[in-house]
């Protein structure tokens, strides 16, 4: 029996997408970003599929510890670093590389004795994102302070993050790159700049480590494009099945609040998927759904456990017929557009009750 609602994960696609990263950034090592449970795909299974990556990156210390406890031994960067001494000690214990971005972190590093020595860090420059990092002269001052810190492995590595690299017409990205290069040019450490949008959209960035996330999962960070445009293959496909088919007369409304009124007599399909599974509640009527591999439009509101579709184009469809919500044959980027969101949120949003079917 097929599960009611399930995600199919094509782990071979992860390996393929990693190879594509290496084609787009041939002179870079790859720090594969697997934060947020590998964008909803499962952190340890994706880490296993990424054994060819030079390193891994997560957002938080607990994600890094989890990877170490699962036996992963490659470099792991924690993109938010530590926020207290306990986290710093955990990072030392598990040999996790820290991003350092606040004066408080520097104080914590200075307070540790050299007996614990051996932490690798990435010093973060804020080049215009205005989220994490040191700006301008503060960056140089932080660098100087860290040079004298016996806890640290030298050289100190250098990192920044783009704010708007998915907009190819915004020259802010160019300014961020120039600003970073200008400041770090005299420093010996390794450099890391580009996320997926930087890798795909801004070729020629000079750095040592690329930091792809989204593209490893087969998606495009650019509005109006899909992963296939860049030779990427979707990893996640979300599936369910029809559970009811019925006729609804023209003029009747469908679903909560009656937001959809049937313009004609309608063959209505009910599918067992909803926001309780991670199918976004704000997905609008008209969003494509694959029933028996063919597109039909969503109609009415998304409920917790069900959605409704117009099956007038498929009069023979029956309960039990297979449905794809996104993934294979239906780019999640396209569904994100119909839900006024980005593919990141849809991938991250799959809930516990959805069964996972892996394909190595
Ligand atoms: C999440 C993240 C990435 C990966 O971004 P994608 O757009 O998914 O490629 C890279 N660097 C940092 C600092 C991040 O937080």
TrEMBL record:
Q: CDD domains annotated for this entry?
A: PLPDE_III_AR_proteobact (cd06827)
Q: What is its EC number?
A: 5.1.1.1
Q: Which UniProt keywords apply?
A: Isomerase, Pyridoxal phosphate
Q: Which pathway does the protein contribute to?
A: Cell wall biogenesis; peptidoglycan biosynthesis; Amino-acid biosynthesis; D-alanine biosynthesis; D-alanine from L-alanine: step 1/1
Main EC class the enzyme belongs to: isomerase
Substrates-to-products reaction catalysed? L-alanine = D-alanine
Q: Domain Alanine racemase C-terminal: where?
A: 235-359
**Its domain of life?**
Bacteria
Q: Which residues carry this modification: N6-(pyridoxal phosphate)lysine?
A: 35
Gene3D superfamilies referenced in this protein's UniProt entry, alphabetically = Alanine racemase, Lyase, Ornithine Decarboxylase, Chain A, domain 1
- Residues annotated as catalytic: 35 (proton acceptor), 256 (proton acceptor)
Q: Which SMART domains match?
A: Ala_racemase_C (SM01005)
| Binding-site residues for substrate, renumbered to this chain | 131, 304
Q: What does this protein do?
A: Catalyzes the interconversion of L-alanine and D-alanine. May also act on other amino acids.
PANTHER family attached to this UniProt entry: ALANINE RACEMASE (PTHR30511), ALANINE RACEMASE, BIOSYNTHETIC (PTHR30511:SF4)
Q: Which family does it belong to?
A: Belongs to the alanine racemase family.
Q: What is this protein called?
A: Alanine racemase
Organism of origin is Methylomonas subterranea
List the gene name.
alr
């Amino acid at each position: 029996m097929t599960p009611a609602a399930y995600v199919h994960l094509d782990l071979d696609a992860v390996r393929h997408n990693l190879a594509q990263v290496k084609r787009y950034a041939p002179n870079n090592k790859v720090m594969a970003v697997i934060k947020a449970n590998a964008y909803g795909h499962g952190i340890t299974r994706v880490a296993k599929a990424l054994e060819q990556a030079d390193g891994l990156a997560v957002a938080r210390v607990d994600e890094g510890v989890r990877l170490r406890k699962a036996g992963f031994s490659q470099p792991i960067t924690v993109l938010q670093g530590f926020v207290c001494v306990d986290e710093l000690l955990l990072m030392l214990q598990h040999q996790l590389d820290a991003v350092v971005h606040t004066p408080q972190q520097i104080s914590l590093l200075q307070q540790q004795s050299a007996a614990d020595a051996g932490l690798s860090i990435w010093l973060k420059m804020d080049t215009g994102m205005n989220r994490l990092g040191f700006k301008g002269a503060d960056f140089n001052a932080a660098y100087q302070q860290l040079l004298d810190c016996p806890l640290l492995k030298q050289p100190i590595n250098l990192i920044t993050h783009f704010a708007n690299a998915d907009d190819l017409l915004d020259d802010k990205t160019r300014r961020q790159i120039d600003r970073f290069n200008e400041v770090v040019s005299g420093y010996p450490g390794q450099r890391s700049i580009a996320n997926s949008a930087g890798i795909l959209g801004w070729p020629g960035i000079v750095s040592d480590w690329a930091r792809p996330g989204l593209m490893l999962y087969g998606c495009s960070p650019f509005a109006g494009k899909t992963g296939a445009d860049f030779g990427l293959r979707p990893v996640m496909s979300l599936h369910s099945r029809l559970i009811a088919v019925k006729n609804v007369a023209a003029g009747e409304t469908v679903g909560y609040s009656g937001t959809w009124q049937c313009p004609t007599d309608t063959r209505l399909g009910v599918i067992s998927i909803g926001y309780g599974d991670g199918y976004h509640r704000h997905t609008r009527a008209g969003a494509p759904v694959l029933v028996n591999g063919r597109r039909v439009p969503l109609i009415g509101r998304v409920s917790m456990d069900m959605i409704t579709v117009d099956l007038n184009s498929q009069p023979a469809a029956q309960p039990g017929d297979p449905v794809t919500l996104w993934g294979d044959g239906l780019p999640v980027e396209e569904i994100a557009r119909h839900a006024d969101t980005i593919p990141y949120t849809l991938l991250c949003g799959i809930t516990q009750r959805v069964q996972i079917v892996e394909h190595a």
